[in-house]
Amino acid sequence: MRNALxxxxxxxxxxxxxxVVAVVSLVAISRVQWPAFPSSNQLHALTTVGQVGCLAGLVxxxxxxxxxxxPARLGGLVFVSAxxxxxxxxxxxxxxxxxxxxxxxxxxxxxxLTRLADSPALRDMTYLGLPPFYxxxxxxxxxxxxxxxxxxxxEIYKPWAxxxxxxAVAVALVLWWRMVRFEYxxxxxxxxxAATLAYGSPEPYAAMITVLLPPVLVLTWSGLRGGAxxxxxxxxxxxxxxxxxxxxxxxxRETSFTLAGEEEPRxxxxxxxxxxxxxxxxxxxxxxxTLLFGFSAFTFAVMGxxxxxxxxxxxxxxxxxxxxxxxxxxxxxxxxxxCTTWLPFLxxxxxxxxxxxxxxxxxxxxxxxxxxxPMLQFSLLxxxxxxxxxxxxxxxxxxxxxxxxAIGVLAIYLWSLLSMLTTLxxxxxxxxxxxxxxxxxxxxxxxxxxxxxxxxxSARGRAWERATPPLAGAVGLAAAIAFSxxxxxxxxxxxxxxxxxxxxxxxxxxxxxxxxxKFYPDIDHAIVTVTGRPRDQTVVMTADYSFLSFxxxxxxxxxxxxxxxxLAQFDLRAAQINKWSKLKSADELLHALDxxxxxxxxxxxxxxxxxxxxxxxxxxxxxxxxxxxxxYTVDLRAALFDSPQFVVxxxxxxxxxxxxxxxxxx
Length: 666
What we know:
Shape: globular
Order of helices and strands: HHHHHHHHHHHHHHHHHHHEHEHHEEEEE
Number of strands: 7
Mean pLDDT: 91
Distance between the termini: 55 Å
Helix content: 55-70%
């Protein structure tokens, strides 16, 4: 227990260091007038300099760790945090928006952040009166940070995304150094952080889970094996090399084990702390990101069932019960934590009608129709993944770490096949979103494989022992620099959108003329002036959903059914809007609004169309077709708003129709 608390303390220190490094770095970057990333190479050049400096610092603290243990660990936290911030924050230095700007997925994510910045209550991002369907964890913390700092939610998205991922990387380093030697922990954390930055950073809350998943899988596999450890380390390996069982998390630091694991338990090797930690992680993912929660639970279940089957073959029914009991405890802990955010939705779903309940999974791009093999790519990343795949094949049955990562990789392929099969039920498991996770797991395995290869070569003789480490270090450092400096180019499409989208101040990061979003402040002022109500008491019908990303108004209809709360009855609302388009007079519209089964819109934000009509460009789900969304236009007659009860206001291409407040009406 004492060591477990010590580990929690180290994780807290790591998080604090990450926050300080991220905040100081981002503030320093923001105070300089940088050129836009898409039109200048200066930010890329400075990013490379920062990355090289951080990697050199990591090499230095790794070298110094044997003599100055705790200063080296603190230095490792600082440098790995700085590496993350400079890689992500520097290319975004001249814009206030995050990767992919305020477009598509980032639009609804920013809307969610804006909603939870307006109030700490757990509420749906769009629909008035509904509990949240999407896990609010990341957005709630970011929203509270925005509220406490007095910063608009859209503006805090970027610093919160960078800071939160930096925290996850620092915590991952702590988890690794509790299970392997500190030098190896630095290699593992840097490698997996770089891979996640390159391929998972546009979705920051998913990136946090992704970078933590490899050490958590090792921890979980060790915990499920529980009291069945005890085999000796292979000949030739010293206790310092193998780092025997760590009683802090009760995860094994040595690599020797068998799947059956029938040996007698060692003292302090019961694995219950690891089981509890796995349950806490799974509960955390339940409040953070549904897909990775489902995948993590699936992987843990595969681990437990595989171990139970092996124990049953070797020791009978009673031996098989232990991993299943541990798996059940993980599930109970996760369920208890997950209920903090899921219970309001589940209770409402029991007594309220639901429609479009599967739309969130109605997406099957080309990447979701095939299996991905990053280890077969002809690239530096492909070589690392290939080394990792080979190491998993060779060591899966003799290493806790390899076994855990191998099960994670196999679980992704199994999940992908199941996702393809579920298309028969007109849905998917969104397996394409696990591609960054697959890459990170293979990169972690590749790092282990590289270390073991270096150790094997060093053991061949004195000459090999002298020559191999420096050569391996030089090759590894060169590879790390080469991959890291290419990350901004991998992210270039997302970075470009971050500079070309118009932010909440009506400005673009590339300093070119802004788009129609520059009229949003005028629209917001008109709404507040006419209604006289707080923004969170006003429902807006609009197809320009970025307006809801900048201001905490409620929407009558969401961007698409894929982002909509199932309790909102997206399809029925769409039918209601279509009925309004058939109306001919203001009296008919007013009657329709007053009899609406949902809180009706009091504001219509539209575009000018042909023949004096006002238009809304909406979307419908056409899965399994690709694209999975069909856009269509709804025309509302101008005569519908020709009434003393409406104030019609023009702002650029927008037409704003605001219903005047009447005492006693919602």
